[in-house]
Amino acid sequence: MRNVIILVLVVVGALGALLSALVSAAPNKPLAPYFNPAPNPYAEGIYARGIVESYQSNGANINLYPEVAGSIARLLVAEGQTVMKGAPLVQIEDSIQRATVEQLRSQAEAAQALLEELHAEPRRENLQVAAAQSAVAQAGLKTARDALDKQQASYALSPESVSKDVLDNAINAQKVAGANLAMVTRQYELTRAGAWVFDVRNQEKQAEALVKAYAASSALLAKYTVRAPTEGTVMSIGGAVGSYVSPQGVYDSYTQGSDPIVVMGTPNGTLGVRCYVDEILLSRLPPVDKLVGQMFIRGTNTKIPLEFVRLQPHVSSQLVLASQRPEKVDLRVLPVIFRFRPPSTVHMYPGEDVDVYIGEK
């Protein structure tokens, strides 16, 4: 009985092993792909990697860099916000430049006030003082002349009545009084003539230079506010309050490079696609008047027809990192620009990578 049980167990085990082997050897049914790879819709279509960007009649996204360096004091807009032309976007700390503007403004006002003072000469009070001094000098000359006449008349009657020394002193006193009257008269004429034309001209140039310096300083102060060059949408802001920015942009600790302080796009619903066609495929590129394209959104089965806009007739170098290694691969590419209006069922954003096939009508 025991041997029968052992035999039955052996047979059952063998059958189980055979069934397990059959099940394991059966091929598994492949899973359906989540999305289909982008197919080439053209008979001789050319593949190109595309990057979605805001559509511009010329150029690409609007990358804004400050013209001055400093730390960000205020962010006046938010990402995704639509702004009008001239709207302030970012305020850079400007206390030193603002103080410089005030200093130059005061200097310009002082120079202008001095110029007005020169134009207003002669001052009535100064002219009155000069006239009074002339009158005093005239009276002094008359007094000296009268004294001399008396001394000379006495000397003529009796030479012993007046000493030679007294007569000489009277003559000298008249000469001094006459010279003093001449000096005072010229001083009066100088006061009445007003400011010298060369002094006025020099002050005009100084006032003009200070006014221009004040205007230049005010213009530089305006550069501390980054404004929208056109109507559009704020797509990204590259810094935070306190971040240091320069004309090279703001440092990004993730990419370890400099990024624009603000990136703007157009406010309309049209987007652009910048495709980079490898130089090896340029001979197969259709004529521009027959060029069409179709875009496939990665991760979906969505395809969107593209309208050709222009190509940049200059093959340039596109440097990309190769697998995070320090060396770089030099790819020569020709940029071809399309545009499209995304359907309401699809959300697309500038900077997104897409697959594009370029064909002929």
Describe this structure in words.
With 361 residues, the chain is an alpha+beta fold. The chain has three domains: 38-55 and 268-361, Elongation Factor Tu (Ef-tu), domain 3 (Beta Barrel), CATH 2.40.30; 63-91 and 224-266, OB fold (Dihydrolipoamide Acetyltransferase, E2P) (Beta Barrel), CATH 2.40.50; 122-194. It is 39% helix and 27% strand.
CATH superfamily of the largest domain: Efflux pump adaptor protein, beta barrel domain
| Helix-strand category | alpha+beta
Average pLDDT over all residues: 85
**DSSP E strands, number:** 17
Q: Strands of the largest sheet, in order across it?
A: 1-12-16-14-13-17
The CATH topology of the largest domain comes to: Elongation Factor Tu (Ef-tu), domain 3
**Quaternary class:** single chain
Along the chain, the helix and strand elements come as: HEEEEEHHHHEEEEEEEEEEEE
Reading off the top of the CATH hierarchy, the class of the largest domain is best stated as Mainly Beta
Global Rg: 48 Å
**Biggest sheet, open or closed, and with what strands and sense?**
6 strands, antiparallel, barrel
**Domain tally:** 3
**Can you count the helices?**
5
Query: How far apart are the termini?
Result: 86 Å
Percent of sequence in beta strands: 25-35%
